[in-house]
Amino acid sequence: MGAGNGPEAHNPIFQDPGEEKPGWNHWLLIAAAVVGDVPVGRTANDQPSAALVIDGKLIADEIRFRIAEQIRRMKDSVGKVPGLAVILVGDRRDSLTYVRNKVIACEDAGIKSLVTQFPQNCKQDDVIRALSTFNEDPSIHGILVQLPLPQHLNEEKILNALKLEKDVDGFHPLNMGNLAMRGREPLFIPCTPKGCIELLIRSSVEIMGKNAVVIGRSNIVGLPTSLLLQRHHATVTILHALTKNPEQITREADIVVTASGVPNLVRGNWLKPGAVVIDVGTFPVEDPSCENGYRLIGDVCYEEASKVASAITPVPGGVGPMTIAMLLSNTLDSAKRAYDFT
Amino acid sequence: MGAGNGPEAHNPIFQDPGEEKPGWNHWLLIAAAVVGDVPVGRTANDQPSAALVIDGKLIADEIRFRIAEQIRRMKDSVGKVPGLAVILVGDRRDSLTYVRNKVIACEDAGIKSLVTQFPQNCKQDDVIRALSTFNEDPSIHGILVQLPLPQHLNEEKILNALKLEKDVDGFHPLNMGNLAMRGREPLFIPCTPKGCIELLIRSSVEIMGKNAVVIGRSNIVGLPTSLLLQRHHATVTILHALTKNPEQITREADIVVTASGVPNLVRGNWLKPGAVVIDVGTFPVEDPSCENGYRLIGDVCYEEASKVASAITPVPGGVGPMTIAMLLSNTLDSAKRAYDFT
Predict the structure, then answer these.
(1) What's residue A26's pLDDT?
(2) What pLDDT score was predicted for residue A36?
(3) DSSP B108
(4) With B73 labelled, which of A21, A39, A175, B321 sits at a CA distance of 20 to 30 A?
(5) Residue B64 domain flag
(6) Domain that holds residue B102
(7) pLDDT tens, A69-119?
(8) Is residue B120 classed exposed, middle or buried when 0-12, 13-18 and 19+ CB atoms within 10 A define those classes?
(9) Exposure pattern of A22-49 as b/e (b: 16+ CB <10 Å)?
């Protein structure tokens, strides 16, 4: 999936496509039952919080600043800049927004970006042909296909056509295998999981030897996050819709990363006092008091959790900005490899 | 690693090469401290047991019988049999034993087997050349390189030269990635993990929704077993040498699969009453009363565990025989694909 900031990383529809409905429904029912008494969508500034608020926007800005610096140095030194190609099919409003955000972030960092847009009813061969052109273009170091694709296109086949060395989303199974296996190194680490770990590291949260719970097992977030936490020597448990006692297991965790696709799933009483909470969820909920008519909430009931956790990411302004920063970082890394630039 | 039955699958030296020594030492110290009061090496027949003894030998024999049946049918139908090639470097006694066992098992099942043996000081190019010959040989459907290789050979490079379609050990990162990712299918599932799951399924142990603990995170056993349990919808926790409270976490598990490389690590009080225990460990300990002068023990203190568990695999006679049955099964599957035979 094309990495982005915002709801795209956590929409249950494409985050966990193979998930059994009864299971998710069970969780959704829990969430629905509590929504009445949960103050949804509060952000860090709304109320006093016992927890350290992990400011993803600030951390992402720092990372993007350093990336821009390195790209200037690359330009001065080898006369080249990284290039990112985005393939967009159709005109879904959310996809257009994500792609626009990526293009703007690329421009800010000094990365050349190209967007190829196809109509909703385009042919698979046309998409693959465009991919192949980008595969061969030496000025392009990262390619991403903005998901979801229309039903008539074979997502797996299209993604498999992407050159491994340019798979900046890191979703290729070979990349995933190398992420999972000890002693192997993936070419790219998927953007959202990489962003979650960066938030922990830059907030001085020790991972080694800690009990970590990952809620949700999507290929895009849950799975790679669990593998990455294991690489950092956490003891990891992966919860999913068929887990029978998620709150009890979560209460044992020092670190909780949640990408369940269920808003407000994680209540305060799911957490061990002092736990660190990374919330990947993002769901728009109507709110006439907001400028756009809606506000974003996460997987975690922030108001409750922030009183129990020692550190927590807000929604928005937590993981979201990191995803796009990691996309820029992966694209820069790819260009560095291509130009043998350190 | 070449799949086998016996200690090869669990020797900590090559099972978890990247593991931090202090961690393992910590566990080894625990094991050493308790060894005095632990009745090591008892098998299922030595004493009354509360638990169902999962008879791996019997189950493996049934599987091997069915495999032989299918191979006869294949021979009658397409005039071909599966072929397995083994590459053996040096003359390690244990490796020779494993290879001999594999060859005998192949013969019993009707699989053609070829062994190419190189001297200890052989050149890497010679090994890779032999591999390439087997890669191109249409009568060979599975290739395995018996590990460990001598130090001067690059294991990763040699294993990477193996054609994916013939990687019956299933250790290639692409296979591992496809095992990890939902909606993807690996060509082969590594033999020991596949054997563990088969033991559970054939003993009517429900996996879906159960809490499972995997002790050990080797690429060969722990990692693929955890991925496979997740595919079967267990809630999985992976413990390793840096886990701080392994006994406490294990006590929450309905299913425990242990491949820690530490004999007698798992005591009775590590287990929840009624847990199902699959013991991948195999360690020879001196015992003059045995014919060979030694007997085998596992990761689990069998005498204690069998009083707490509802079902348990003995050592020997549990997982070991399944590993080799799964190697035959993978080789047959590969031949079926090659001949489009169902």
Answers:
(1) 53
(2) 42
(3) H
(4) B321
(5) no
(6) 80-169
(7) 999 999 999 999 999 999 999 999 889 998 999 999 999 999 999 999 999
(8) exposed
(9) ebbebbbebbeeeeeebebbbbbeeeeb
Q: Bigger pLDDT: B110 or B155?
A: B110
B317's tokens? 């006679």
Gyration radius of chain B over CA positions: 20
Task: Write out chain B residues lying below 8 Å of A236, CB-based.
Answer: 237-238
CA-based nearest residue to B184, from A147, A167, A157, A231: A157
In chain B, residues 212-231 whose CB comes closer than 8 Å to chain A: 217-219, 223, 227, 230
DSSP state of B44: G
Residues A34 and A85 in one domain: no
pLDDT digits (tens, 9 = 90+) for B162-193: 999 999 999 999 999 999 999 999 999 999 99
**Which of A185, A233, A244 is best to mutate for the B interface (most B CBs within 10 A)?**
A233
Contact B219 A181 (CB under 8 A): yes
| Residue B27 confidence (pLDDT) above 80 | no
Contacts of B230 in chain A (CB under 8 A): 217, 238
- Local confidence band at B37 (pLDDT 50, 70, 90 cut-offs): very low
- Longest alpha-carbon distance in chain B: 59
Q: State residue B32's pLDDT score.
A: 47
- Final residue before a domain boundary, out of B169, B190, B217: B169
pLDDT for B217-227, tens place per residue?
A: 999 999 999 99
Cis peptide before A193 (omega within 30 of 0): no
Using alpha carbons only, what angle is made at residue B196 by residues B88 and B299, rounded to the nearest 5 degrees? 80
Q: CB distance from B267 to chain A under 8 Å?
A: no
Instruction: Report whether B105 contacts B142 (CB < 8 A).
Output: no
Residue in the block written with tokens 């001196």? B286
- Residue B8 included in any domain: no
Q: What are phi and psi of B321, to 5 degrees?
A: -60, -25
Q: Does B206 touch chain A (CB under 8 A)?
A: no
ipTM greater than cut 0.85: yes
Tokens of A163: 């050159």
Exactly one of A15, A55, A70, A146 is catalytic; which is it?
A146
> Any idea what the CATH number is for the domain that residue B258 is in?
3.40.50.720
**Residue (of B285, B295, B213, B287) closest to B256 by Cα position:** B213
Measured in whole angstroms, how far is the alpha carbon of residue B298 from the centre of its chain? 13
Could you tell me whether strands A83-89 and A142-145 are parallel, antiparallel, or unpaired per DSSP bridges? parallel
Q: Answer yes or no: do B162 and B255 share one domain.
A: no
Contact A182 B227 (CB under 8 A): no
